[in-house]
Write a structure and sequence with these properties.
By secondary structure, the protein is an alpha+beta fold. It contains 24 helices and 59 strands. Strands 1, 2, 4, 31, 32, 33, 34, 35 and 36 form a 9-stranded antiparallel beta sheet that branches. Helix 16 packs across helix 19. InterPro entries: Ric1, RIC1_C, WD40_repeat_dom_sf. Its main location: membrane. It is found in: Membrane.
Length: 1055
């Protein structure tokens, strides 16, 4: 669901910035350095450093690869770390530490260490940033931790965004009397609650120096403390930021005293995840541990209950399979572990008592000898993408293993000549802008490369239109897939022009960057986006955006819980202050006060439309609210008609990613909406589990739900009932381009359920079959799904067209530009053959015929049948069924004979299969001679020619040639002036008999020419003889020979 787009932007500090700036050297409080240190803690000094502040010290510059000197090594960035909210990040070089703002990317403050400090503490080797971004910690080579405090001056600004005259946008703001005036006409947004206009002055102040006598193996900056893994002895030190009364500031836990820690060495890598409250340790011996820290216990040296509790969930299989890097994905409850083999194993966290089984793995696109060692492993903020940085490149996967992009396809020559080190390896990497940007620091480089990333709208709001329409967005643009609006044939094209990019208004993008969520309407007419505050919406038809006239109103609320469209009304879940609302806006009116507003008791997790007019709202207090959207003229109202509490069923509401429900047909069409909650079967997507909740009654007649997990590792799902026009089923096929789920489908896929698990689509053709097998008391297995493998990431399934569409990325390197860039390629694949094969394998030919009848008017329907035949034939040739009576091929051939394209499908299949497969195929068919006669009778001359070639191949061991059949076909082709076919037949006859006797015999039999001197002239009633009319067969076989007046059939003898 993540795809890099375009070329990255490079940011670097100018080479001579330090000599012309106000940055001063810092001695890091050496004048107050104490002698000695405590055993478990460190040397700590007061905040007495002088001249450690650098404000606005550096400027953005462009790296000049031609200037190389000894100071370049000092400028190479060694590490980079962001704050939790992604608003700032810090970098270190060997001698300096710099604080940056993320948007726009500028260096705010820097500290350059003095020579005396370098000699005393050693050069910088690693970097930590406290999650809130207020403390920066530098780890040195001699085992010291130097801490700095980052502060900002709210009243002082050092930069201000200024737009050019051509892009300035005037916005009306509402006055107290209701009239309108114009604001923000100076080209930059006014400072507001959520606006980042203007860059405030920042200062880095020295805080303290911490000496770790035992040696630093790995360190982490947590919200309340520093966590340091030491080497000798192997221990874990916990150093609080602030001392609490009655609690020591520093505590130490020896790893050897932990009964569950079976490794002999120290910790080489560790990460912490706050939502899951889990640490993951990687030991020196390659083992991986899941760890929790107890929050409250008596701090006694010999306490029986240790501070840390955990267990080993991965041990190396051999000495070449050592774990080296790890990452935690709280959104999907996963832990990824990278090993020395280059493979990345992913484990699912089911509980905190040690139940962490293996889930799946991520395979490298190339050999580890080319990629180098794994350097960094990080999940995107929403957990949908895994980024792995290697010594010689990088790669990205979806959460469950689909390869999305990598840099290993880069050509070495242009990459080196353009000095694009971001393609050649990773030193450090991190996400910014809620996942819309990826920052990469390459080895031996002083630049930070910012690569824009496009995401599926389903990552932020997994609603049915977002999934089915393939909407993408970046931090400041939306990308629409236009294949839905094209003809069926063009939908199969991999034309990049099917993607249409639209820029979000600049004033909104500047003030509210990045775009955090987006929603498209079911009819593709409208798109809404929401940034850090406020929202904006766009009309695809008119190409116009609408934003709030008053920036103050825009800054008053945050969209939290998603958005959805109902006709031209936008419904959004918002948070304003400490209150939570459902609001409705009209596309036809200016954005200002909502048309409708309803306050809620708890924040919204997600909302979605279901059925004709039902709105489902799931909240943090574990309630599912059911509303009916009532429209009266130009106004709209949400009427609550029911709610369901899931207490005791869903333990962690924030882990719910999507929701829908299935109503019985009678309730959907004629039932009371207030009774929907009692009769609906609810679908939840919790982490990667698709959960089905079916209503029933207990002994006292009270409503209860039977829960069953029906799928694992689900990235997203599509319930076709929720798609536009799915509930209407006219009798004829709607062939208009915008028909997404045409009526011709009837009930064949109207009730289908699709989900993607990172490997392929899984399809249940009828969800009612799943509902009938789901109750646990029945003890039934769920019906098997139909697997639709894809070699790209599928964005959606266009059911009316019978295809799956998706995206792929391509790294473009051209000689006419001096940079590389990523571009998106649209990909499509037919899913119809897989579904037909499933029905036929289940001996359900009526279902296959019914499904095929919905698609038989598509121009590529015959191609779908050909794929079906080809797949079945290949599988049965490679693995003959035992016993033979179970073969599927005869059933498929019988099914194909029901369609007019049957003869063409069979002969086209033979052209794409090996000769050894022909006998297996035609053993299930009528005699080839009969198929030839049928094709000739129907006027399908090229099809008949194909069968004639098959006939010759299957009977070539017999004496003689099918002269009569070739003559009939050649005569028929000549009579219809199909000279291309005549030439093909002539070339074939010459190919099997170089003497020309076979061709002469056929020509004599057909009466198309005489054999004098080998001259062959078509003779047709009503046409002049000779080469004056259409040319000779010789010209068709070899036009160049005809131009030289050489008789091809005289075997090179000039005429």
């Amino acid at each position: 669901m993540y795809w890099p787009v375009g070329a990255p932007k490079a940011y670097a500090l100018s080479k001579h910035a330090t000599s012309s700036s106000t940055a001063e050297q810092s001695e890091d409080s050496l004048h107050e350095r104490h002698n000695g240190a405590t055993e478990d803690a460190s040397e700590q000094t007061a905040d007495t450093e002088k001249n450690a502040i650098a404000t606005g010290t550096t400027t953005n510059g462009v790296h000049n690869a031609q200037e190389q000197n000894a100071s370049d090594i000092e400028n190479h960035i060694l590490a980079a770390r962001p704050s939790r909210n992604g608003q700032m990040f810090a970098t270190i070089t060997r001698t300096a530490v710099t604080a940056w703002q993320a948007r726009p990317v500028v260096a705010l403050a820097a500290v350059i260490r003095s020579v005396k400090s370098m000699q005393a503490y050693g050069p910088n080797v690693d970097l930590l940033v406290r999650p809130d971004g207020t403390v920066i910690i530098v780890q040195t080579a001699l085992g010291y931790l130097i801490t700095y405090t980052l502060t900002t001056e709210s009243n002082t600004q050092i930069y201000r965004t200024q737009l050019p005259e051509s892009s300035r946008h005037s916005r009306r703001s509402s006055t107290a009397d209701g009239s309108s005036s114009y604001a923000r006409n100076d080209g930059f947004p006014e400072p507001g609650a959520a606006s980042s206009s203007g860059i405030r002055e920042a200062m880095l102040r020295f805080r303290m120096v911490i000496r770790i006598d035992a040696g630093i193996s790995k360190a982490l900056a947590l919200d309340d403390a520093l966590l340091v893994a030491t080497q000798k002895p192997a221990a874990m030190q916990y150093i609080r930021w602030a001392t609490e009364e009655g609690t020591p500031q520093t505590s130490t836990e020896l790893l050897g005293r932990l009964s569950w820690y079976t490794s002999s060495g120290s910790i080489s890598d560790m990460v912490h995840d706050r939502p899951m409250n889990v640490l993951c340790w990687i030991a020196d011996d390659g083992s991986a541990y899941a760890v929790q820290r107890r929050q409250a216990r008596e701090q006694q040296p010999n306490a029986q209950n240790p501070v840390f509790s955990g267990f080993c969930f991965r041990q190396p299989a051999d000495e070449h399979d050592l774990a080296i890097k790890t990452a935690i994905n709280a959104r999907f409850s996963l832990i990824a572990v990278g090993s020395t083999t280059g493979r990345i194993d992913v484990y699912v966290v089911k509980d905190y008592s040690g139940n962490i089984p293996f889930s799946h793995d991520h395979q490298l696109p190339i050999a580890t000898s080319i990629t180098g060692d794994l350097v960094q492993l990080i999940y995107s903020p929403d957990g949908h993408c895994l980024f792995a940085g290697f010594e010689k490149g990088w790669a990205m996967w979806s959460v469950y293993g689909t390869a999305l992009a990598n840099s290993f396809a880069a050509e070495s020559e242009p990459t080196s000549s353009n000095d694009e080190k971001w393609l050649l390896g990773v030193r450090s990497a991190f996400w910014l802008g809620n996942g819309c940007q990826l920052a990469i620091v390459a080895p031996r480089d002083d630049r930070i490369w910012m690569l824009d990333v496009a995401r599926s709208a389903a990552t932020g709001c997994l609603s049915p239109p977002n999934v089915s329409k393939g909407l993408l967005y970046t931090g400041s643009t939306i990308i629409l897939y236009k294949g839905q609006d094209t003809s069926d044939l063009s939908a199969l094209s991999s034309d990049a022009s099917l993607l249409e990019t639209t820029q979000v208004p600049k004033h909104y993008s500047i003030a509210q960057w990045p775009v955090r969520t987006a929603a498209i309407s079911p009819d593709d007419k409208y798109v809404a986006v929401a940034g850090s505050r406020g929202l904006a919406h766009y009309s695809v038809v008119s190409g116009r955006w609408k934003t709030f006239d008053d920036p103050a109103v825009e800054d008053q609320f945050v969209v939290r819980g998603g958005m959805c469209w109902f006709q031209h009304f936008l419904i959004a879940a918002v948070e304003s202050g400490s209150k939570y609302y459902l609001r409705a806006y009209s596309r036809e009116k200016t954005l200002g006060r909502p048309l409708y507003e309803e306050e809620l008791s708890a924040p919204v997790i997600l909302l979605t439309m279901s059925g004709h007019d039902s709105l489902l709202v799931y909240t943090y207090d574990n309630f599912l609210l059911h509303y009916i959207v009532a429209i009266s003229g130009s106004s709209v109202k949400l009427v609550q008609v029911g709610q369901i509490g899931f207490h005791g069923i869903i333990r962690a509401p924030p882990r719910v990613r999507a929701i829908s429900w299935i109503l019985p047909e009678d309730q959907l069409e004629h039932g009371d909406p207030s009774q929907d909650v009692a009769r609906a079967t609810v679908l939840f997507l919790v982490d990667g589990k698709l959960v089905l909740l079916q209503p029933s009654s207990n002994e006292r007649g009270e409503l209860k739900y039977d829960m069953r997990v029906i799928a694992q590792n689900v990235e997203y799902f599509i319930l076709q009932r929720d798609q536009a026009n799915a509930l209407a089923a006219p009798d004829t096929i709607d062939t208009t381009p915008n028909n997404e789920l045409g009526g011709g489908l009837g009930h064949s896929l109207r009730d289908s359920l699709w989900y993607f698990d990172g490997d392929c689509y899984h399809v249940w053709s009828d969800i009612h079959d799943v509902l009938a097998s789901a109750p646990n008391e029945l003890g039934r297995d769920l019906p098997a799904t139909v697997r639709v493998p894809v070699d790209f990431y599928p964005v959606s399934a266009m059911v009316s067209k019978g295809i799956v569409n998706g995206l792929d990325t391509e790294l473009v390197q051209r000689r006419d530009v001096n940079f590389s860039f990523f571009r998106h390629l649209t990909r499509t694949q037919l899913f119809l053959p897989r579904l037909l094969r499933h029905h036929l394998a289940e001996y359900n030919s009526p279902a296959a015929l019914h499904l095929a009848s919905s698609y038989q008017d598509l121009p590529y329907f015959a191609h779908a049948l050909e794929i079906l035949l080809h797949d079945v034939l290949d599988s049965e040739v490679d693995s003959p069924p035992t016993p033979p009576e179970t073969a599927l091929l005869p059933t498929v051939v019988s099914f194909l004979s029901s369609y007019p394209a049957y003869l063409d499908v069979v002969v086209n299949c033979t052209r794409k299969t090996e000769l050894r497969s022909w006998r297996t195929l035609f053993a299930c068919l009528p005699p080839v001679q009969q198929l030839f006669e049928q094709s000739l009778e129907l006027g399908k001359l090229k099809t008949a020619a194909g069968y004639l070639l098959v006939l010759h191949a299957l009977e070539q061991d017999q004496e003689g040639l099918q002269v009569y059949e070739f003559a009939r076909l050649l005569c028929r082709a000549a009579s219809e002036q199909d000279w291309e076919l005549c030439g093909e037949l002539a070339r074939f006859l010459v190919g099997i008999d170089g003497s020309g006797d076979a061709l002469r015999s056929v020509l004599a039999q057909s009466g198309l020419g005489n054999g004098q001197n080998g001259s062959v002239v078509p003779q047709m009633p009503g046409h002049a003889q000779g080469r004056a009319a259409r040319g000779s067969i010789a010209a068709l076989v070899n036009p160049q020979a005809a131009q030289r007046q050489v008789d091809y059939f005289s075997l090179g003898v000039d005429s």
